[in-house]
């Protein structure tokens, strides 16, 4: 539990996240479009476009959670906590816990832990899965690139010993 028992998200920070995410999603979708439109070489371009779309999806999902928290002001904390912890424990809520990574708002119940409220339960796992998909597609795009394959072949030839009987 943080030193401030009523910790909550900063409105300006959440607005900044939403605005930056809008720019990032737009840019990533435009990049994916350009990758698909060029199509040379086809596989690396498709993988880069997929990575850009996965990154746009992860960013968009995270921004959606920030929007949910923007509308989640102090006037609805008590009701959201009552729904999250149940009516029997609602009177024992002794503080709030807000985090940005993962994005969540928690209602702390004395002796019973913290319950998430305000952010859909699917949001953080979905953003994580899309982020991991982005990383996998970026690695695959790099490996499929002709430049990468040529550099690897050159390094392999440089490392491999000369055949028996040949000396350089």
Give a written overview of the molecule.
The chain is mainly α. The protein has one domain (11-158). It is built from 5 helices and 3 strands; from the N terminus they run αααβββαα. Strands 1-2-3 form a 3-stranded antiparallel β-sheet, with helices on one face. Helix 1 (11-38) runs antiparallel to helix 2 (42-70) and helix 2 (42-70) packs antiparallel against helix 4. It is elongated, with a radius of gyration of 24 Å.
Question: What's a concise summary of this model?
Answer:
With 168 residues, the chain is mainly alpha-helical.
Rg from Cα: 24 Å
Task: Pick out the low-confidence regions.
Answer: none
Order of strands across the main sheet:
1-2-3
Order of helices and strands: HHHEEEHH
- The rough form would be described as elongated
Number of domains: 1
Share of helix, binned: 55-70%
Average residue pLDDT: 83
Task: Write out key terms for the chains shown.
mainly alpha, three-stranded antiparallel sheet, 5 helices
């Amino acid at each position: 539990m943080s030193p401030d028992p009523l910790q909550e998200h900063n409105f300006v920070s959440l607005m900044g996240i939403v605005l930056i995410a809008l720019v990032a999603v737009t840019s990533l979708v435009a990049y994916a479009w350009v990758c698909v439109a060029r199509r040379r070489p086809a596989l690396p371009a498709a993988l880069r476009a997929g990575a850009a779309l996965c990154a746009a999806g992860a960013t968009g999902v995270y921004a959606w959670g920030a929007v949910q928290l923007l509308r989640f002001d102090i006037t609805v904390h008590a009701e959201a906590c009552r729904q999250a912890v149940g009516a029997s424990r609602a009177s024992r809520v002794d503080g709030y816990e807000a985090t940005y990574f993962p994005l969540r708002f928690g209602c702390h119940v004395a002796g019973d832990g913290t319950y998430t409220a305000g952010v859909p339960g699917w949001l953080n796992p979905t953003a994580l899965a899309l982020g991991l998909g982005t990383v996998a597609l970026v690695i695959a795009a790099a490996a499929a690139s002709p430049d990468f394959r040529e550099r690897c072949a050159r390094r392999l030839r440089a490392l491999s010993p000369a055949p028996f009987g040949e000396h350089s």
